[in-house]
TrEMBL record, chain A:
Keywords: Membrane, Transmembrane, Transmembrane helix. The chain crosses the membrane at residues 18-35, 41-61, 82-107, 113-138. It comes from Afipia carboxidovorans (strain ATCC 49405 / DSM 1227 / KCTC 32145 / OM5) (Oligotropha carboxidovorans). It comes from the Bacteria. This is Transmembrane protein.
From TrEMBL, chain B:
Pfam families: DUF3147. It comes from Afipia carboxidovorans (strain ATCC 49405 / DSM 1227 / KCTC 32145 / OM5). It comes from the Bacteria. Signal peptide: none annotated. This is DUF3147 family protein.
Amino acid sequence: MQIGLSTSPLANSRWYEYVIRFVLGGAVTVFTGMISSEFGASIGGLFLALPAIFCASATLIERHEIRRKRDAGGEGARRGRGAAALDATGAALGSVAMVAFAIVLLVTTSWGAAAAFACASLAWVVIAVAMWVLRWIVKRGIRRARARR
Amino acid sequence: MSEYLIRFLLGGLFVSLFSIIGDIVRPKSFAGLFGAAPSVALATLGIAWAEHGASYVGVQATAMIWGAIALACYSIVVCQLLMRAQLGALAATLVAMPVWLLVAFEFHAVAG
């Protein structure tokens, strides 16, 4: 298990991909606000976890991988799907952390905005990383059990 | 109008920030965590707190729990569509959207 940083994907990204993410993020936030104004806070709250941004990010990841594979002389469709699927797996784990974010925010609202957001954000980071590590341990266990057979 | 502009800028900023973090961290499954980061929630709930207060944010956070559970179900379905049905990323993420709507609204209806 090695978590690392690599800035090369930033250099490989096109400028318009950042614009797409910014505009989409802004649009979803405005949309969520409009839903809350129109249908109330409860319905609006559901849309705080709308996967609209995930659609764009998974598509961009797939395109990056296809482009990279084509540059190396391959087809890339399968590799692109695999990369997007891995991203979706991570998003599923992140969603569990998002549940923790919402619960901690709910519990700490009486502490004031800054403390509540800080605690909720910390909960998201801790649970997200813990979920990912847990998945890694389980996968390693399965792999070792198969190898023993 | 200015309120929506602030929402747009803040939402765009948070989403871009988490996207960049997701781009630079490795491995890919770890980077995927940032695809479900509470970026829209941070921007929206921050503004909601300033405008309506803590109790309003509490109502939104409760509903967000159901939305996030729906997002987990949606992500699993997307993963299956990509690997088993061999759909492309855009098709898989759009085809699975009714799953999110169904689970989110069903939980909301049952649990409130």
